[in-house]
Amino acid sequence: MKIIFLNASSQLGGAERCLIDNIFGIRQELPTAEIFVIITAASGAIVNELQPLDVQVILLPLPDRIARLGDSSFDPQKIFVNLFRLFTPINELLNYWHQLRNTVADINPDLIHSNSFKTHLLGSSLRLPQPIIWHLHDFISDRLLMKRLLHFVKHENIWAIANSKSTKDDWHNIFPRLPIKVIYNVVDIDRFAPDSGLRATIPSDNPDLIKVGLVATYARWKGHDIFLQSIAHLVQHHPQSSAKVRFYIVGGAIYETARSQYSRSELVQLTRDLNIEDWVEFIDFRSDIESIYNSLDIVVHASTKPEPFGRTIVEAMACEKAVIVANAGGAAELFTHERDALGVTPGNPHDLADAIWDLIESPTKRSAIGTAARQTVVERFNRDRLGAELVDIYTQML
């Protein structure tokens, strides 16, 4: 079987990690498959990650003006301005389209597996005879520009994979006839495993200190403000806990649009405004993020908007951590409340504070939830199952 994966970014976001997992699974199930990855961007971190998987990587960077177009720049009140911005680089777009079409036609794959919004659009517009899979990592209903453009290029030879039932339902509201199969994202349970001798990543002079962390980019909807407000609530109602608990924000600002994310200085200022700066530390992302999870006792997910999936949740669960989850969207499908994680109301700092305090005061409960969490991931989100599920869909399509 010959497969082309199309991806818009060369950086290592959640969709790109899913892409790597997909290829790993296919390699297990179909060792002789010919796999090509066409990336519509310049070289980045994902290229090194793909090398051990015996794939051919082809870089076809989109022209800058086209690459910058997207829903974040789409103003529904300015239709003519949007159209002008969209069609101004039409010659560049046509030249790129022909280059991509010729590249795909020369490879002549059995199928095309698209991994991002822009490649859904580009790949479907090629109108080649091969079937196309749209891998759905995000909701579509609030993508004002993309959902309109995808309607123009959608055809009968397109199937889809959704990373959760919530994602599937959202897309079916816009594309009711699109065949969609739910395949949950997976993790490497050997990499994301308890302890692994890595707990010294966040060192402490107090071995009994309970460490509570939020691991996320600085996107505003990830709930950093809610997490900090919950800490302020805990400080106010349980001041005696200062000797046994410490809070961490792990991550950074990765987007180009400033309004879509916090800066580190904004979050630091918020800790000062809430008078909790002595309780909170900031840590940059690490490539070995499993070492961060293994340094924490409680991992918090505080997103204020529904998540399509929630990779951080499953990674932390795999490391046998007690996780608190904002209970909405795809994240709500990943756990059973009070068994392998705790669910809280999104955007409610008091609810979150109560859940954190419950786990701080109950080491037996923390341990039991962590043990059950690891078992859940092994049973439901182990990437060893992924190859067979993908090949089954490929076989149906062909």
Concise summary:
With 398 residues, the protein is of the alpha/beta class. It has 15 helices and 13 strands.
How would you portray this structure in words?
- With 398 residues, this protein is α/β, with parallel strands linked by helices.
- It has helices at 14-29, 45-50, 64-67, 79-87, 90-107, 117-125, 144-153, 165-174, 224-237, 264-273, 289-293, 311-318, 349-361, 363-380, 386-397, and strands at residues 2-7, 34-39, 56-59, 111-114, 132-136, 158-162, 180-182, 210-215, 245-250, 280-283, 298-300, 322-326, 342-344.
- The strands form two sheets. It has a seven-stranded parallel sheet, with helices on both faces. Strands 10-9-8-11-12-13 form a six-stranded parallel sheet, with helices on both faces.
Can you lay out the helices and strands and say which pair or pack?
Blueprint: E1 2-7, H1 14-29, E2 34-39, H2 45-50, E3 56-59, H3 64-67, H4 79-87, H5 90-107, E4 111-114, H6 117-125, E5 132-136, H7 144-153, E6 158-162, H8 165-174, E7 180-182, E8 210-215, H9 224-237, E9 245-250, H10 264-273, E10 280-283, H11 289-293, E11 298-300, H12 311-318, E12 322-326, E13 342-344, H13 349-361, H14 363-380, H15 386-397
